Amino acid sequence: MRxxxxxxxxxxxxxxxxxLMLCPETASESxxxxxxxxxxxxxxxxLPFFVVSALLRAxxxxxxxxxxxxxxxxxIWGMSGAGVSAFLLGITGGYPLGAAVIGQLRRxxxxxxxxxxxxxxxxxNTGPAFLVGAxxxxxxxxxxxxxxxxxxxxxSAALIGMLTAPRKRAEAPxxxxxxxxxxxxxxxxxxxxxxxxxxxxxxxFVVIFSVVTGLLSDEIFRAAGxxxxxxxxxxxxxxxxxxxxxxxxxxxxxxxxxxPTAGNLALAAFLIGFGGLSxxxxxxxxxxxxxxxxxxxxxxxxxxxxxxxxxxxLLFEMIS
Length: 320
Known about the structure:
This protein is mostly helical. Helix content is about 80%, strand content about 0%. The chain has one domain.
């Protein structure tokens, strides 16, 4: 078994090298597409939120929320008010800001390991800029649909938090004040530095997964065709599903041209809630240096996607 664990990664690496050598144009175009996503969407929307969230953590937001919301969040989610700052920043900034905030809180000792693990199940979410701009206006040509998807996404995250809350209230860690000793200029410099480093890592994963998606596009299309022939499901929707499981942006991009039916909106809601393997990898990167694992949060994100899809269908039927 140990030998197999050593051989399989080596074979995967050799296979990836062969694919790059055999399909250099596809790999280059896919990489350029990933860089466009980073330059046109991720960096403009995420970098300001990363910087501001770092400053808010340094100047006391988790401690303030802990004092104001500790009792309420402990009853609803079984977590401290400091931990809920990850939820609030996550649903405004988008993937993987929530995970980054949780990771920093854990490094600072602001929340316990148990609380941080549960927070990862529902605090790492996408934001309104991506859903309204990319999913709503970009895919379905309607900002209203983007707002609807955002609403069901946030509601589903809150419900996942309630479902994963401990039956017995855990003792909350001592709330920290998080007041920065450094002056404004020093704190801003550190916030920009760490934010840029984190965002470069995120963009690296986006580009890599874009390349993987591009190289596997033919296989994904064939698999979608086989499933469509067996189940009668729409080919384009299946291709979007298989692509989105790998990389969220590419999966939603594959849905362009689909009409905003209940089924298609449910598919978009699932992909947004799950986030794709690329988001999982980005989350693992921003949690580096902590004792947190993504095994349980991975399944929680899958449940988040399913719940978002269900709520989207119910809401669509109510308003249509």
